[in-house]
Every structure is written in structure tokens, then in C-alpha cells.
Amino acid sequence: MIKEEEYKKRRDTLASKMSKNSIAILFSTNYKTRSNDTEYPYRQDSNFYYMSGFKEDNSILILIRKNRKYKSVLFVNKKEKIDELWNGKRLGKEEAKKRFLVDEVYIKDEFEKKFKEYLEGKDSLYFDFKLDYSKVKILKRYAKSLAIHKNIAKIIEQMRLVKSDAEIKLIKKAINITKEAHLNLMKLNKINKKEYQLQADIEYTFKNNGAYSDAYTSIVAGGNNANTLHYIDNNQYLKEGDLILLDAGCEYEYYASDITRTIPVNGKYTDEQKKVYNLVLNTQLKVLEAIKPNVKRSKLQKIAVNSITEALVELGVLKGNIKKLIKNEKYKPYYPHGIGHWMGLDVHDSCPYKDKNGKEISLAKGMVLTIEPGIYLDEEDKSVPKQYRGIGIRIEDDVLITDDGYENLSSEIVKTIEDIENLKGK
Ligand SMILES: [Mn+2]
After folding, report:
1. What is the reported pLDDT for 41?
2. Does the annotation mark 103 as catalytic?
């Protein structure tokens, strides 16, 4: 769990980055209607949660800075019997005041009046530029006079880049649950099952271990379906002799995990599958080896592109000079995506990749990112030698940058051919 002191420290940091006579506002997410009076599962806005630790909807956090000092104010739902009867218990003003280390707590009804007061004499307003228009309208109504508008999300997302020990603990917990889901599937007999049945197994393991949900829609892609990067239909039969690409990770206490393994339906890789698999695995190992503080993600991408282009030549998919092939991006149809992304409160953590000056941000201790090379050889692609058509492989781990290198947080989710085949044998 993340302590209240840590949330307070984050607010201190945020306030210190605000201009001297300013006000910052953060809104909780709204419920989204699915149809009529049914809603999608609620999930708090990541930036709001990062700054408040508060999970309820209809809430607002405000920081008011004056010179060197600042005040934090939280607006929460009123405790009303009838509302609680329908929608569940609310923390309420008194409890929120006790629990959160904010200076003041009010019920939401008081927001507009208070907001007007806080704005007096201020010269700039910070809010999330991606805010719903309905909320921007409220801001505009009261903050017309404030000429300077700044994007608060940019500052918070910069802060979110480096994870605290408590955050890393939660990420590890998420990965641990995800590990169980993946290892279970490696052991399972999967012939003639439907992809969604494996998805059900995965999600059972997630929920059964206290994960709120998946961190993203699971990809369970049998055979050639692995060559559709965002395949989420998950409704086909798994065929003996095929591989399954499983890209699935749970979210635990708001923190994501993101793991891909590509395993054989019947427990044994064919020689052709082995060949492609090991080329992807070797690429991943090469990239991992290069990870340490001050290295840039683009360097990792370069290593991956180089290694995969060589692999594609070895497989007979590409022919010619490696450097030229890379320069002309000939690998792109078979490896179209990046080497990885930040991960944290969001699976694709919305932290920046470039600094204020447009320069790429280097890896630093406490950052978490995925490393996920892949090779995708579509069954209809005539440039691919016949024996490799329909094979799609990705291997993805979650990595923490340490003082002098990295820690592979998902190293216990086996990935060598030998280990995966052995697990099925048990
Ligand atoms: Mn990923």
C-alpha cells in the first residue's frame, strides 16, 4: 500500500513546480454510461489517483499556491443515505479529513463557491488539457480572467516516470499474479480449446488473486492470429501444432503488469517455431543486456531492429545488406512496433519520452518499462518462406532500472523453449 505521507510528498513536489501565485485543479473520472442506467466498471483517473490516493468519483483536488506556501483542498461526495443505498458507501467529509493529509476537505456541493474564492488574485491555472469538455466549461466560467493556462498532466506524468519503493512493490505484486496466470496456461492442455477459454482462465487467476481486473484486454491469439497485433476477438479454436501468443497482465491496486509469452498449443514447439522463437528470444536478451541508467530507449530499439533484421535474413524473409535493409526499414512489415513502453499506473504509462527541450529521456533508476521484441510472419505473405508462414512471436517482460543495470521483474515467468516444454511435461 502507498502511505498517505507519500501522497502528501507528491503534492508538495507538484506545488513546488507550480508558479508562485497559481492554482491547480484535478478532477476524478466520471462514470461512463454503457447503456441506459448501466455503467462501465469505474476506474479512477491515474493522475488524480497519483496525487490523492482517492478512489471515489465526483471528487476534486485543488492546490493553491501563494509564494512559498501552498494549501491542498479535497472535495468529496456528500454522505447521503439514499445515494449510499444505491451506489455504495462514501467516505464522506469527516473520514476524508482524518485519512488524507490534505489541509481542507469539503463536500462537492461547495466546490463552485470555493473555487471562485481561490481564484481571486491568482495569475495562472493548471489543469489537465485532456479534460472532458463539460469540466473545461466549468473552469472557463470561473477562470476567465486567468490568462495563463498550464497543463498539469505534463508535470504529474513527469513525476510518475520514477517509481517509489511502494509503487514497485505493487507492480511486483501485479506481475506475481500475472505470473500465475501464464504458468497455469503453460501447464494446461490447450488442444481444441477456444481462445476465449484461455482468456477466462487468465482472468479467473487475476480476479481470484485480488487483482481488480486486467490492465488491458487480453490478447489470446492462436496460430496466425498472432500476426494481428491488436487481436482481441479471442474466439477461434486452438489447433494442434500451432502457437498461441498470450499478451495478458493484471492490474493490482491501480498498478499494471504487461507480459507476453508465445507457447505451443500441444506443449511442443516444431523445429520451424523453435527457430523463429529463439531469434526473438535472443533479440530480447541482447536488448536486456544493454539496459542500465543513462541508456536511451532509442538505443534499445536500434539493437532490436538490428537483431531482428539479421534474424529475418537468416530466415530467408529478407535478402541483402543488413545496413541497407535497416536504412530502408525493410524489417517493418515483420516488426512494426517499438521495443517497449513505460509501465506503472497505466499499462502504457502516460509518462513523457522526451524532456522539455524535446530531447529523449534516458533511463534512470526507478523507471519501469516493458521489453517486447517480436517477429510476425503472416500466413498470406509470399515473401516469407513457406515453412515459417503463420508464425507470430512476441516475448515481453517488465523491467525495473536499478543503480547499475536492471531487474527483470518477470524473470520467473519462464521463457526458454526448454523451460516452457518442461512445464507442460509436468
Ligand atoms: Mn506491452
Report:
1. 92
2. no
Q: How remote is the CA of residue 394 from the centroid of ligand 1, in Å? A: 10
C-alpha cell at 188: 494446461
Q: Is 149 a catalytic residue?
A: no
Query: Is the pLDDT assigned to residue 146 strictly greater than 80?
Result: no
Instruction: In whole angstroms, give the CA distance from residue 426 to residue 187.
Output: 7
Flag whether pLDDT at 137 surpasses 90: no
pLDDT tens, 1-24? 999 999 999 999 999 999 999 999
Residue 313 cell numbers, joined: 535474413
β 368-371/259-264 pair status: unpaired
Q: Are 351 and 161 a contacting pair, CB within 8 Å?
A: yes
**Amino acid identity at 409:** L
Helices (H), 160-296: 165-187, 195-208, 271-289
Give the chain's domains with CATH numbers. Answer: 4-158 (3.40.350.10), 165-425 (3.90.230.10)
Give the Å distance between the CA of 81 and the centre of ligand 1. Answer: 43
- Residue 57 annotated among the catalytic residues of the structure: no
Structure confidence at residue 140 (pLDDT): 83
Q: Is 372 a catalytic residue?
A: yes
